[in-house]
Structures are given as C-alpha cells and as structure tokens.
C-alpha cells in the first residue's frame, strides 16, 4: 500500500490501518493483511485457510478422542498417544523415559513425568532403581500379574494407583505423579512423586497480628490443606476435591465439618463451583467472583484469608472453607459484613482490648469513608457548625490556596492513592523513597507552595491512616472507592448529599447476601448470638454459636466454663453443671 | 386473592419500622400542628390518641388473628369483591401518595430554607425521592432491616436533642393545663389518630411477620402504639416547655428550631446541621414506606402479580402531587386541614370496618351451610373468608 493511500485511510477514520501489523482474533490467519490488493489473494486462499482451520478442529477432536481412549497392550502405541497428548517433541518439559525392567527376557517400559513437577530423587530411588536393579520379576507371570507385583512389592511409593484410561493418566501426570507403561499391559501405574518448588510456610503478609499464630498459607495446595488440618484436628473435617477448568484444570478443595456445617450450604457451594465453565481458573480471587451472590458491586461477599487459624475458627462455626490450586488465600463462605472488621487477634486478647480494637476499626471505617466529605460539607455548606476560632483558623490557612475546597481534596486524595499504589508496585529496595517523596511533596512542599491548606493535609493523612486499619484488603478497596462518591455528594449537596448516599449504602448492605445469608445478619435481621458481632464480649459469654452460617449445633462451649472460680462456683448454673458432672461420673441418670 | 410476596420480617424489625413510620412525624410539622389544636395541652393529644387506639386494639383482640395470612388489602378484596375491594385499595393508595407528597414537600422546603438555601427545590426533591424510591423498590424486608439499624440511632439522637435543649425549659409554659379547653383536646386526640399511620402499616405488614403466633402479633401492635405515643408526647412536652404555645404553633420547623438552641459549651453549639442526619434518615424511611404502601395497594387492587414495576410511576406521581400546592404554607394547610383531619377515616375507620365485616362473615353460617360447626370447619371457613 502506498503512503498516500495509508494517509487517506487514516484521515477517513478507517482505523483498520492500525491493526495491520498483528491481529489476535479467534480465527486470525498467521499473516496480517497488507493492502487491498491482497484481498483477492486472501479470498483465493480462503479454502486453504478453511482447510487449515478444519485441520485444527480435526486435531482437537483427535486429541479429545485420544484422551478418552483406553490404554492398550502395545507400548509403542501408548507412547505415541502420550506424545500426541503432550505435544512431544515440541513440548520439552514432559519427559518420556524408556527403560527395561529386570526380567528374563527384559521387559520394556516407559516412565512419563513432568520435569519440575515430579521429584526426580523419588523417581530414581523408588521407581527406576528397584525395577532395573534390585529385584527381578518372575518370567512366567502374565503382564497384568507383573504389574500387580510391581505395585505390591517393587515400587515403594506411598501412593500407587492403577488406571486404565489416558484421561486419568494425563490428569495425574499434570498433578506431579509419574506414569509407568509396561509392554503387554493395558493399564498404567501412577506413582505419587509430587515435588515441585514452592514457598515454604512463612509469616502472613496482609493479616499480621501481635498475639497469635504467625504462619500463613503458601502456594502449595497440599501444604495448605495440611495447615488447616493441623489446626483443626477433627475426624469430621471433610475435604472434598473438585476440579475447575476446561483447558487446564485447577484443584478446588471444599472443607467443612460433617455434622456441624449446614448440608444445604455445602451443596450450594459445590453447586456453584461445579457450574463454573472457564478455560483456566487462575486464583481464589477469580473463583470468588464466579460464585458470589448477586448483585455485583463493591463489597466482598466471601472472605479471603491467608491465615490457617482463621479458617479453622470459621470451620468450627459451621462455615465452608475453599482452597484453590496454588493460591495462598482461602475463601470463607458465608460471611457477615461485621466479620470483615474482625481479626483473629480480637479473640486472643482479653475482651476489653479485643472490643476496643474493634471499636477503633469501626470508627476508622467511618473516618475512611466520610472524613474528606465532612470537611468539604462543613467548610462549603455548614460553616456555622465550626466554632468561631477554628473557623477563622481554617479560613486563614485557605487564604493563599487558589483552588476550591473540592478540587483541593480531590488532588490530595488522588496523590495519596498514587503513593499507596506506587508503594505496592515499587521494588522493595527503593520502597522507603516513596515515604520520603510522599512526606516531602504532600506534607511540606504542597503546603509551602500554597496549593493545599495544612488542615487538609491532616484530614487526608488521618483518612489514609484510617483506611490502613482495615483488616480485609477487599474492604479497604471498597472504602477507598466509596470515599470518592461521598466526596462528590458532599461537594454537591453538603450533609444532605452525604446522608442520601449513606442511606443508599445502608440499604444496599441490608439487601446483600452471602450464600443466602443477609450480610448485616445477625444484627439486621436480628438473630440471637454471642457478644461477638460488633464488639467482643468476655470469653465466658461466648456459649452460643455464631448464627451466620446456620450451623446445626447452636452451642460451642459449656454454659459454665469456669466452675472452679469463686465468682461462678456458687451460682445456680455452676451448681447444676457440677451436679450433672457428678452424675456423669457415677453413670447415673441425671433425671 | 393471592398476596404479593413481601418477604419475611422479624418481630424486632417490624416494631422498629412501625415506630419510625409514625414517630418520625416529630421531625416534620406534627408538633406545630398539635400545638395549634391543643395549645398548652397539646402534649395530651398524642397521649389521648394512644389511649383511643389501645382501647380499639383491645376491643378487636379476637379479630387480629385473621390478619395472619392476608393483609387488609387482600381481606377487602376477598370480602367485598374486586370492584369494592379494589376501590378500597385505590383509596389507601391515594391517601399514601398524598401523604408521601405532603411530607416530601414539607421536607424539601425545610431543607432549602435551612441548610441549602441556594439549591433549587426540585433538585432537593428529586434526590430525596430517588432514594425513597430505591427503598420502596427494595421492599418491606429491606426497609425493616434499615429501620432496625437506624432505630436506635434515631432514638438516641432524638433523646439527646430533646435532652440538650431542655435546659431552656420553663414548666410554666404548660399552664393553663387544658390549653384551648377539654373539648379541643378530646377532638385533637380523636383526629390525631390520623398520625398513627403505623396502625395501617401494621394491617398490611402483619402477614409478613415471621412468627404467626397471635401473641406475637398482639405484642408488636401494642408496643408500636405505646412507643409511638410516648415519642410524640415526650417531644411535644419539651417543645412546649421551650417555646411558649403562642410561639410553638407558628414555627414551621419545630425540631430544627429546637436543635438551634443546643448549647453545651463553646464547642458544642449550632448543632442543627448535624441534626440533618436524623431528619433525612427518618423522613426517607417514612416516605419510602408510604411509596411502598401506595405501590403495593395499587398492584394488589389491580390484581398485579408484583408491585415493583409501578414504584417508579408512584414516585413520579408523588413528585407531581408534591408540587400541587402553590406554596409551603398552602402545603402545610392542606396537610392539617385534610390529611390530619380526615385521614383517619381511610387509615383507621375503613380498615377496622373491613376487618369486622370479614370477621363477622367468617363466623356467621353461610347460606345453606351448617348452623353448628366443629372447630376445624370453623377454621377452614375463617381461612376461606380471608
């Protein structure tokens, strides 16, 4: 195409010219179109393309046929199918190792594993060494007997299974197992050899506490389930496994306590997970969006946590926990909006301290949402509220500022958001620089330049601090976004605007559900529960189970938990409890 | 007649919603209205209204359980047929559209006069009605939950406001004890039952109550009447002792004026802007409930399966009606002359009559039926009638 024609196309707002270099469409050809004269060539080559596309479809259907096919006795055929399925030799990280099993005559076999997923030491010492060197196989046994003998006596892996279809073989190989095909045998031996690299259990990154366990989930699925089970040692803890994804599958574990968790909740969680039709499920954050209740919006309706102790605690209250593939975050469902303000530390501290921390967080939610909006409303619409001395101070500090209050606040809030986002993305080596830049630019230079008033710097700083106290990252993002809506409402209508938006927000919250449970429950709708919703009560008053997950057992501890204490020893309940205990010891009927 | 699904409401949520629905009148022109009628004795008017309604409630003690399955609109339709029953539904809807429009106008005028003097009245009204419509669209379940959360805040705010401003109280403002005379107090008490619109809401919302026990229903009814009466009388009492009766009957924004008097040292004064929070919240809930009742009654009267599609139309109608009065003074006059004086005919007398007729029909033998019924057949007849 000539330069003139290209220019003409650009001037005539034909933006296809921008796509000439490369276009990644669903049915894109390998070569980009160059000019209009190529259109005839394209049309002439259409059957060829169709043929190519047909070839791909044919290839796909052949691949799926191979997946569903059974293992055959011919080792060459099995190897061919494996190579087809794993795109060998193009694909370099799937290893096919051919060897001979010590027998007379030697028996040919192949091992299939993914380099990087399987532990090579286990393969060498637990599969190859015993089969090739240590012990011969009786020559007169049939191939299937030989396979059974190998499974029972020769391969000392802790999990060894026999499968008959390539679908099962591929699934297990991709999960880190090693498959062994033997000449003359129509089944494969799958030895558990998982051993990929992963981060070891380390301290929590986003839910730090002073008092309480410091370990957090990692990117290892089995390590995560193990962490939960180590905290919650119950025979009734059930871990159900599901798979999500069509192009590549991701393991999803649904954990619940049999007999305590509401069965309809478990069924609903599994139903929603099974309904996901997606090529690839990347992380818990994606799953969360697929299974959360309508309507879509700001507030999280499923809790994500990286703390195993928190998962254990929620399991003990009848919630369902979900662990996903290599995600270091577990999901908890259902949850209440109040739980988003809780930390595990609240329960580990004495109740006055736990309660105080929760109160601070609750106040900080309001501060994070409303402080800049209240500043705008007060200074623009309702200055009579401010005592005269303070009003004069604010007016004096704003004297040199050329912007209206709204613009001033928006600039500062935007700057804070920039610092926050940069602080996350910046390499850790130069992380402290952000603090210096932020403090100098926002705290000092902006004020000295007369762009913002010093009082506003205080308002924005307190707001930022308040939003940092959110124990849940999703909630923190929600507060950050809603703050701007409140800010605009205050700029338009003062207190009236703030309360209108506030009322909409409250109604939105009142209608939200998490797996069918109202998010403001157990406050609205009211359900009787232990004093563990807004503030934290004393430990002895926590007898009643949280009603959020509608568990099947309403009590979580005895009515009298300190019968030895003089404070409770003489009470009627303590005496009745002691009497029951004595009867139990004697084996008498308490009635 | 099948009832439109409204969800389920707990006892506490229903109680909070009912009390806010009528109790929020104290933030509007109610104190001024009763001061006009009763002067120094105007605080007795809500007390008398409470006594009248309590007596009426006790008199109808045995009748209440027929509201277990159906509300007052459905009972009207089932008892009087679709034409007369539908007419009743239209009357209910009309009353509540008018009430919503009147409250909206009063509220918007007060906002413009006091806190947003440079904002057009229509902007204030539209913003307010949009939020109220969202609430009405959310339905009874959502409104009752928000009421339960807002209830304690509103109660604390009102008590604080009344308590802080009571430092200006002078008890001699309550004398002469009978104000304009016993007659005007008695008339005001009877007519003042119009303000207890929560009684009507109760008749509609009862079937949504989670617990169908008659005892629960009666308990909620009794508490809502008593608590509303207490709030209205308490606020009126302080209002009268702070402003004399001659000033009280000419203040268009009674509680706003009361809040301007709050002075707790140099730092806590001129709290009227803070008071806007309580004021807006309670009025939104009140108008939203009015819109919901109007939409529900329209939908049920015309045998629609759902009410939500007409919430927008009812809101638009309310917006139009709210500007029918040429001025704020005329709007107040219409409210006191018509809604307050005659509203009780539609909100109290008509529903009671409908319930009584339905109850009598359910008890009396049908044509060709058996004179003596067993307990089970009587229950079936009762269910069929309602």
- Taking all Cα atoms into account, the compactness measure Rg of chain B is 21 Å
Gross morphology of chain B: globular
Element string of chain B (H = helix, E = strand): HHHHHHHHHHEEHHHH
- In round numbers, the mean pLDDT of chain A is 83
Low-confidence stretches of chain A: 13-57
From the helix content, strand content and strand pairing of chain B, which structural class follows? mainly alpha
Main β-sheet of chain A: number of strands, strand sense, barrel status?
5 strands, antiparallel
Distance between the termini of chain B: 9 Å
What oligomeric assembly is this protein in? heterodimer
Largest interface, counted by CB within 8 Å of the partner chain's CB: A-B, 25 and 35 residues
How would the global form of chain A be characterised? globular
Number of helix segments of chain B? 14
The radius of gyration over CA of chain A amounts to 32 Å
* Strand residue content of chain B: under 5%
Strand order of the largest sheet of chain B: 1-2
Question: Can you characterise this structure?
Answer:
- Chain A has 591 residues and is an alpha+beta fold.
- Chain A has 20 helices and twelve strands.
- Chain A has helices at residues 3-11, 37-44, 46-68, 75-85, 120-134, 143-154, 166-174, 221-231, 263-274, 284-291, 308-316, 345-348, 351-380, 388-397, 405-425, 431-448, 454-468, 473-511, 566-569, 572-586; strands spanning 94-101, 107-114, 160-163, 178-182, 188-191, 237-244, 250-257, 303-305, 320-324, 330-333, 513-514, 517-518.
- In chain A, the strands form three sheets. Chain A has a five-stranded antiparallel beta sheet with strand order 1-2-4-5-3, sandwiched between helices. In chain A, strands 6-7-9-10-8 form a five-stranded antiparallel beta sheet, sandwiched between helices.
- In chain A, 33% of the residues are buried.
- Residues 13-57 of chain A have low confidence and may be disordered.
- Chain B is mostly helical and 386 residues long.
- In chain B, 71% of the residues lie in helices and 1% in strands.
- Chain B is built from 14 helices and two strands.
- Chain B has helices at 11-23, 30-38, 44-59, 72-114, 121-165, 182-191, 198-205, 214-242, 245-248, 254-260, 272-301, 311-322, 328-363, 375-385; strands at 263-264, 268-269.
- A two-stranded antiparallel sheet of chain B has the order 1-2.
- In chain B, strand 1 (263-264) and strand 2 form a beta hairpin.
- Chain B starts with 10 loop residues before the first helix and ends with a helix.
- The model of chain B is unreliable at 367-386 (pLDDT under 50).
- The chains are: A alpha+beta (591), B mainly alpha (386).
- The A-B interface holds A 378, 381-382, 384-385, 387, 493-497, 499-500, 503-504, 506-507, 510-511, 518, 520, 523-526 and B 9-10, 12-13, 111, 115-116, 119, 124, 127-128, 131, 134-135, 138, 142-143, 145-146, 148-150, 266-267, 269-274, 276-277, 280-281, 284.
């Amino acid at each position: 195409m000539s330069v003139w024609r290209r220019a003409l196309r650009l001037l005539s707002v034909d933006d296809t010219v921008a796509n000439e270099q490369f276009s990644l469409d669903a049915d894109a050809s390998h070569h980009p179109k160059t000019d209009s004269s190529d259109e005839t060539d394209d049309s002439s080559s259409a059957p060829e393309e169709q043929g190519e596309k047909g070839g791909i479809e044919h290839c796909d259907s052949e691949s799926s046929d191979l997946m569903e096919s059974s293992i055959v006795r011919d080792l060459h055929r099995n190897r061919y199918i494996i190579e087809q399925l794993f795109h060998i030799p193009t694909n370099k990280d799937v290893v096919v190792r051919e060897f001979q099993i010590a027998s007379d005559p030697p028996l040919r076999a192949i091992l299939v594993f993914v380099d990087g997923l399987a532990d090579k030491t286990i393969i060498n010492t637990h599969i190859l060494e015993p089969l090739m060197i240590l012990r011969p196989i009786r020559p007169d046994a049939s191939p299937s007997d030989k396979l059974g003998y190998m499974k029972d006596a020769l391969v000392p892996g802790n999990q060894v299974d026999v499968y008959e279809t390539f679908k099962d073989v591929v699934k297990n190989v991709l999960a880190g197992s090693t498959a062994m095909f033997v000449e003359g045998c129509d089944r494969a031996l799958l030895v558990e050899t998982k051993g990929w690299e992963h981060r070891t259990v380390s301290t929590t990154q986003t839910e730090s506490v002073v008092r309480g366990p410091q370990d957090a989930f990692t990117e290892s699925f089995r390590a995560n389930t193990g962490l939960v089970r180590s905290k919650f040692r119950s025979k009734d803890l059930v871990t159900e496994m599901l798979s999500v994804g069509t192009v590549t599958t991701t393991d999803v574990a649904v954990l619940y306590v049999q007999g305590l968790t509401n069965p309809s909740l478990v069924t609903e969680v599994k139903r929603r997970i099974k309904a996901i039709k997606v090529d690839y499920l990347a992380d818990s954050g994606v799953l969360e969006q697929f299974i959360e209740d309508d309507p879509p919006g700001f507030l999280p309706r499923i809790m994500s946590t990286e703390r195993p102790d928190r998962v254990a605690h929620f399991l003990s209250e009848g919630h369902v926990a979900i662990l996903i593939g290599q995600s270091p975050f577990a999901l908890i469902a259902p949850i209440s909006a109040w739980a988003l303000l809780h930390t595990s530390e609240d329960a580990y501290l004495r109740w006055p301290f736990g309660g105080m921390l929760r109160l601070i967080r609750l106040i900080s939610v309001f501060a994070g949402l409303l402080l800049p909006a209240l500043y705008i409303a007060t200074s623009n619409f309702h200055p009579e509220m401010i005592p005269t001395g303070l009003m004069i101070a604010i007016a004096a500090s704003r004297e040199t500022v050329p912007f209206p209050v709204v613009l001033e606040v928006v600039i500062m809030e935007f700057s804070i958001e920039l610092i926050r986002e940069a602080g996350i993305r910046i390499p850790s080596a130069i992380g402290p620089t952000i603090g210096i830049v932020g403090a100098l630019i926002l705290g000092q230079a902006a004020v000295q330049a007369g762009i913002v008033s010093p009082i506003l710097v205080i308002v924005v700083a307190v707001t930022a601090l308040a939003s940092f106290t959110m124990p849940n990252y999703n909630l923190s993002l929600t507060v950050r976004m809603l703050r701007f809506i409140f800010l605009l409402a205050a700029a338009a209508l003062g207190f009236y605007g703030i309360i209108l938006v506030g009322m909409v927000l409250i109604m939105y919250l009142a209608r939200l559900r998490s797996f069918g449970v109202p998010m403001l429950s157990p406050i609205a709708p009211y359900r009787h529960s232990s004093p563990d919703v807004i503030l934290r009560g004393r430990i002895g008053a926590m007898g009643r189970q949280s009603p959020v997950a509608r568990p099947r057992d309403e009590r979580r501890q005895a009515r009298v938990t300190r019968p030895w204490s003089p404070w409770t020893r003489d009470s009627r309940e303590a005496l009745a409890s002691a009497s029951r205990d004595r009867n139990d010891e004697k084996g008498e009927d308490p009635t | 007649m099948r009832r439109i699904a409204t969800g389920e409401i707990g006892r506490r949520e229903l109680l909070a919603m009912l009390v806010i629905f009528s109790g929020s009148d104290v933030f509007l022109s109610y104190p001024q209205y009763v001061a006009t009628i009763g002067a120094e004795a105007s605080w007795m008017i809500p007390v008398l209204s409470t006594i009248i309604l309590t007596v009426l409630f006790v008199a109808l003690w045995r009748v209440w359980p027929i509201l277990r399955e159906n509300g007052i609109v459905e009972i009207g339709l089932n008892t009087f047929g679709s034409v007369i029953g539908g007419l009743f539904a239209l009357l209910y809807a009309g009353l509540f559209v008018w009430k919503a429009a009147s409250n909206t106008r009063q509220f918007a005028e007060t906002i413009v006069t006091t806190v947003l003097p440079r904002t057009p009245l229509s902007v204030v009204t539209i913003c307010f009605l949009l939020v109220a419509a969202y609430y009405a669209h959310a339905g009874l379940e959502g409104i009752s939950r928000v009421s339960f959360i807002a209830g304690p805040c509103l109660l604390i705010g009102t008590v604080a406001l009344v308590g802080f401003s009571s430092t200006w109280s002078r008890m001699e403002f309550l004398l002469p004890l009978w104000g304009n005379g016993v007659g005007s107090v008695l008339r005001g008490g009877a007519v003042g039952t119009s303000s207890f619109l929560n009684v009507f809401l109760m008749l509609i919302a009862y079937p949504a109550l989670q617990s169908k026990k008659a005892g629960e229903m009666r308990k909620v009814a009794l508490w809502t009447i008593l608590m509303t009466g207490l709030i209205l009388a308490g606020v009126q009492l302080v209002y009268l002792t702070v402003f004399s009766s001659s000033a009280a009957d000419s203040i268009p924004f009674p509680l706003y004026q009361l809040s301007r008097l709050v002075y707790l040292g140099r730092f806590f004064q001129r709290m009227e802007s803070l008071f806007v929070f309580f004021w807006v919240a309670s009025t939104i809930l009140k108008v939203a409930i009015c819109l919901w009742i109007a939409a529900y009654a329209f939908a049920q009267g015309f045998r629609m399966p759902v009410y939500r599609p007409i919430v927008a139309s009812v809101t638009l109608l309310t917006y139009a009606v709210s500007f029918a009065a040429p001025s704020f003074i005329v709007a107040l006059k219409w409210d006191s002359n018509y809604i307050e004086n005659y509203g009780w005919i539609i909100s109290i007398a008509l529903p009671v009559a409908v319930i009584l007729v339905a109850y009598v029909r359910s008890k009396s033998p049908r044509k060709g039926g058996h004179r003596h019924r067993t307990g089970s057949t009587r229950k079936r007849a009762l269910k069929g009638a309602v």
